[in-house]
Amino acid sequence: MRWLKQQHKAILVIRLFLVAVFLMYGSVKLAGGQYYYGDWTMSKADRPNEGLVWAFYGYSPFYGRVTGLFELLPAIMLLFGRTSLIGAGALFAVGLNITVMDFAFDFPAVKYFALFYTVLSLVLVLHEKEKLSVLLSPPADVNRRATSPSARAGA
User: Fold this and answer.
1) Overall domain count for the chain
2) Which domain holds residue 10?
3) Measured on CA atoms in the order 7, 9, 12, 17, is the torsion positive or negative?
4) Going residue by residue through the chain (155 aa), what tens digit of pLDDT does each one get?
């Protein structure tokens, strides 16, 4: 029983940590930060890898703001029990994209932070495996579970 309480505390800490991280990153992008917006000229010789990447993503301010929303909205969803699985799944997808990008463009230590956030998101998704199995089950299986005697008894 004690382990169960500690497990729930750990999951809560992970959720709140990811909320803080992705609220910050999403807000920065929505406010127009991180990417290079505006009129600029650069060559590969002028900028390291990350400069070119941020300039490419900033070429479209709309895209930059949308990526901020894709980080901000799932983070908010983690705050509520009913939407935490969807939020964790969305953050896993977003985090996986960021991790692949960071490793592909060989960003320095940041790539390991992104990998850490992605693994934490996966931990949250796997923690909700019962909800996930219902979500991914065929409708007939879900109906059978709902009408079984153990479901009616509240087990």
Assistant:
1) 1
2) 2-136
3) negative
4) 455 566 788 899 999 999 999 999 999 888 887 776 666 666 666 666 667 777 777 777 888 888 889 999 999 999 998 899 999 999 999 999 999 988 988 878 788 999 999 999 999 999 988 777 777 777 766 566 656 665 555 55
